[in-house]
Amino acid sequence: MTLPTELTEGTWTLDLAHSEIGFTVRHAGISKVRGRFTEATAEARVGDSLANSTLHAVVKTASFDSGDASRDEHVRGADFFDTEKYPEMKFRATSIEGSGEEYTLTGDLTIRDITKPVELEVEFTGVAVDPFGATRAGFTAETVISRKEFGLTWNAALAAGGLLVSDKVKIELDAALVKQG
Known about the structure:
Elements: E1 10-14, E2 20-27, E3 31-37, E4 40-46, E5 54-60, E6 64-65, H1 69-76, E7 88-99, E8 102-111, E9 114-129, E10 135-146, E11 165-179
Antiparallel strand pairs: 1-4, 1-11, 2-3, 2-11, 3-6, 4-5, 5-7, 7-8, 8-9, 9-10, 10-11
């Protein structure tokens, strides 16, 4: 359980312009709807070991975008995110385990002021120095959550049986972090 050798100690922040925070949910039992969030911050403090490293992220719920204005308005409303009452989703890491390229990131995810533990499967994709001298680290991460556990319970019954929106939501992250200082 060691840090990747290329990932040096210090503070790393999310480069949202080169990252994506997205999810997929099954719609009507037959198709998938994808969405993403366009406003977020994250800070990783890398220590001399995984045990001495931290990660905290905040996502603005009003930045939800699925490419359909009517759906986006509904999802931002009281039936789902209720962005006026709950403007942020938060994640705080509680442990990181693994080595090389494969890690399990455990943490507390808060949606609608409900906090539940989640585990993300993380792949470290490397470190590079860009043409402007910034040191960047890349990661992908995935997990599946039950939206009902976070108070996202709205649904509609289908005439043929089943529900319009599945309970399971797959969260997918592509993150670029930039070393500070």
